[in-house]
Structures are given as C-alpha cells and as structure tokens.
C-alpha cells in the first residue's frame, strides 16, 4: 500500500523501517562508485556484495573506508546454472528444475555458496544478510541452501519476497504459492529476519507502505543507463532526511535484526 502521506511531512503517525539495499557491489568500478557514494550520502542504507566479482576487492576497500563491516552476501550461482551475463540461459525452467532435483548439481551449488561465504568473511566483512544474484533462491533447493548458510555463518536476515521474483533480462522465477508459503514458515521457524514487504527498483520507492520494506536497487555512476537512472531516481526521491519526514526510517539489515520485525504487509 502506498503511503498517502509520503509527501506530507508531519502527518504520519507510525514509522516504517526501509532497507534501501544496493545489489551487485563489486561487479564493476561504476557500480562500486554509485553504491559507495549512495551509502556515504544517505541514499542507500545497505548493500549486497558479489564477492567473486572482478571489482570485489575495491568494493571491500570502499566499505572499509566508510567504516562499514556489516553487509550482505550476494551469492552468485550463474556459473553453475549456466547463465551468461548477457541473459542467455543454458537450460529451460523445466530442465533447471530437474537439475535442482539431482544431488550432484545441488552439491555443486552448495559448494559454490559455501566458498563465497568463506571468502566474504575472510575479506573482513560480517554477513548481516544473504540473498542471491538474479534471485535464484526463489528455487526451493537454493532457498534451503541460504537457510543452511544463515545457520552455519550466524547470518540473522534473508531476502524474501512472498510474491515471488521477476527478472529484468530473464524469465521470472517460477512461483508456487504453497512453496513460498512454506519458505516463509521456514524463515520464521528458524528465527530469521526478513522484510515482510519487498520492492525492486528505485521508481517503486513511493509504494513503501505500512510495514518494514526492502527496496532493492542497482545504482551505478555510468556505463549502464539503467543503473545510472536508478541512482538519479534515488537522489531525486530518497535521502534519509526526506524519508524521515514522511515517517520512513532508512536502516540496514544489521540494524533491522536488532529488533522485533512485524510480519504483516497490508
């Protein structure tokens, strides 16, 4: 539900916590520059790191410069899945579902995820949340891996969208209401924090409603017009002081995990 009072400071009676989480930190110098600038200037409140990406070292150094140690692990299984950066996929959805039913394929995914978690921690970062590149934890076997990582690495929060995930250059992750309901039950059974409302894209900022929300963004300072537009939209519409005036408090997942989380989005 969109907040009717979004543009009317002083009229909101309850506060919503908003995680503006920038994905893909480490993927390129331009993405690093956009995300780090947004964190430093209050337009972004958290980030997820692609620890195997070409510019991950620069990203870790940039976070250290800002005094940020807590961040998300952005698990990348594209190589195991056979997904190319340009969007071409090696398998149909049915073929991929069949592969995710095979122990050997699932173990290859698990080995990659564990290696990335180890590398993330070895870089001096503390995982405050975990999610996946291209939201592939919408597939139940991958989701179960994230629960294992959360347990084994003491990660308090997981990205979750009860309504499923769409992808910019690929087919949406297959959605089954019963499966996603089960995922939600497992998150709560394991005591993991998640935002009950999930939005993707800076343009959806005005849809922030009356429950804690994760807004996933993909900013950069150049090279990719779509990512540059994401940063421009945040600068035009977001910012800690502006959102605070509307009763929306920007927080990180690290901060969010420190308190009780509402479980309804209406």
Q: Would you state the CATH class? A: Alpha Beta
Overall pLDDT metric? 90
Helix content: 25-40%
Number of H- or I-type helical stretches: 10
Structural class: alpha/beta
Low-confidence stretches: 1-13, 259-266
CA-to-CA gap between the ends?
6 Å
Assign the CATH topology. Answer: TIM Barrel
Q: In this structure, how is the largest beta sheet organized? A: 8 strands, parallel
Your description of this structure?
- The chain is of the alpha/beta class and 266 residues long.
- The chain has a single domain (16-256), classed as TIM Barrel (Alpha-Beta Barrel).
- 38% of the residues lie in helices and 15% in strands.
- The chain has ten helices and eight strands.
- The chain has helices at residues 29-40, 56-65, 78-81, 93-99, 103-122, 140-152, 177-189, 225-237, 240-245, 253-256; strands at 16-25, 46-49, 70-75, 126-132, 157-158, 197-200, 213-217, 248-250.
- The protein is globular.
